[in-house]
Write a structure and sequence with these properties.
alpha/beta, Aspartate Aminotransferase, domain 2, Aspartate Aminotransferase, domain 1, 2 domains, seven-stranded mixed beta sheet, binds pyridoxal-5'-phosphate
């Protein structure tokens, strides 16, 4: 059976070019970049080249790039640094729809006695800028708002929020794990202080991340140890993965616009086809302010998990809600925050595409999904109830 992988917000395939570039750094060029000898020196140069490549994709300076172990570490490091650098401030602003890498950090902070404002979103998953502004106070140490939502792909106006935070002398951090490589980012044009990204969302391996820290931003290391990363993150560098991430960023920057437009047209074709052929289906999240690759679709009155299993039987890999909440039958915190009705939230599927997906794959999904939904609705008590209700109303 052919695998059709449309779960790229969960993780992505390592690009063959990335793998190829990393390989020698396991068995041949295995030096420690901190070593004085030539063997370490050549590795150090390659790490610095990777830093330049990452900076290149982000419109940043190489010195602003700190390599970490993952997106989660970067999020933790950013928030903890702002609190440690501003010990007199005890308030954090974030949103209700953050990834657990931020959401669970602020829950922990609440237990430690910090005041936390988690901003609500509307039915389209959007923030109110008035509420964002109102939430910031003299006691706010950090505002952390994700750039793109991992479940719906909805984009937040983080550059505008960063400018607002800057005018009040508040540190601004964004979790851009899902945004990098999918929408243009130019750190030279905004006032974001810190930004997280993760390698495995853009065709580099799992277990490598970056925290961007703008020059001049005060920073307290999260992983305390050696002098690596300019004393900002202890631990011998994960050399092959850093090199892989550098290559992945270079690839992401190549034909950026064309690749993402193609992905968007595949996503739009998928959505149009599914909405047309399946009644009582809807897109979750604002249709415009959205990543080009992501589609969260609700098929009312069916269970997302049952759809996923049937899709999996056909070789299609997608997700229900967020990868991190699958296994639990509770609708995701993101869809709940958006007020998606229970019957729709339960039947939500996330398709997330990459530039490796093809038109034929989309055609196959469009062929396979409608009969699956029909079959599941035939055995769904909720669907029967809905049909009876609509018949008696008409
Ligand atoms: N932030 C967002 C928005 C994500 O989607 C993810 C991963 O799903 C993370 C953070 C965590 O990244 P990592 O898996 O590298 O820790």
């Amino acid at each position: 059976m052919k695998t059709i992988y449309v779960d790229n917000n969960a993780t992505t395939q390592v690009a063959p070019e990335v793998f190829e570039e990393m390989t020698p750094y396991f068995t041949e060029l295995y030096g420690n970049p901190s070593s004085m000898h030539f063997f370490g020196g050549q590795v150090e140069r390659k790490v610095e080249e990777a830093r330049e490549r990452v900076a290149g994709l982000l419109g940043a300076r190489p010195q602003e790039i700190i390599f970490t172990s993952c997106g989660t570490e970067s999020d933790n490091a950013a928030i903890m640094s702002a609190l440690r650098c501003n010990p007199e401030k005890r308030h954090v602003v974030t949103t209700r729809v953050e990834h657990p890498a931020v959401k669970n950090v602020v829950s922990h902070l609440k237990r430690e006695g910090y005041r936390v404002t988690e901003l609500p979103v509307d039915r389209q998953g959007l923030l109110s800028m008035e509420e964002v502004s109102r939430a910031m106070t003299d006691d706010t140490a950090i505002v952390s708002v994700m750039w793109a939502n991992n479940e719906t792909g909805v984009l937040f106006p983080v550059e505008e929020i960063a400018a607002m935070a800057k005018s009040r002398d508040i540190v601004f951090h964004t979790d851009a794990v899902q945004a990098v490589g999918k929408i243009p980012i130019n750190m030279a044009d905004n006032q974001i202080d810190m930004m997280s990204l993760s390698g495995h969302k853009l065709h580099a391996p799992k277990g490598i991340g970056v925290l961007y820290v703008r020059r001049g931003t005060r920073f307290a290391p999260f992983v305390i140890g050696g002098h690596q990363e300019g004393g900002r993150r202890g631990g011998t560098e994960n050399v092959p993965y850093i090199i892989g991430l550098g290559k992945a960023c270079e690839l992401a920057a190549t034909n950026f616009k064309e690749k993402n437009l193609r992905v968007k047209s595949l996503r739009d074709k998928l959505e149009k086809g599914l909405l047309q052929s399946i009644e009582n289906s809807m897109i979750n999240g604002d249709r415009e302010q959205r990543l080009p690759n992501t589609s969260s679709i609700s098929f009312e009155y069916v269970e997302g998990e049952s759809i996923l299993l049937k899709l999996s039987d056909k070789g299609i890999c997608a997700s229900s809600g967020s990868a991190c909440t699958s296994g639990s039958l509770e609708p995701s915190h993101v869809l709940r925050a958006m007020g998606v009705p229970f019957t729709a939230a339960h039947g939500s599927i996330r398709f997330s595409l990459s530039s490796y997906n093809t038109e034929e794959e989309i055609d196959y999904i469009l062929e396979v999904v409608p009969p699956i939904i029909e079959q599941l609705r035939e055995i769904s008590p909720f669907w029967k109830e809905a049909v009876i209700r609509s018949c008696s109303a008409s």
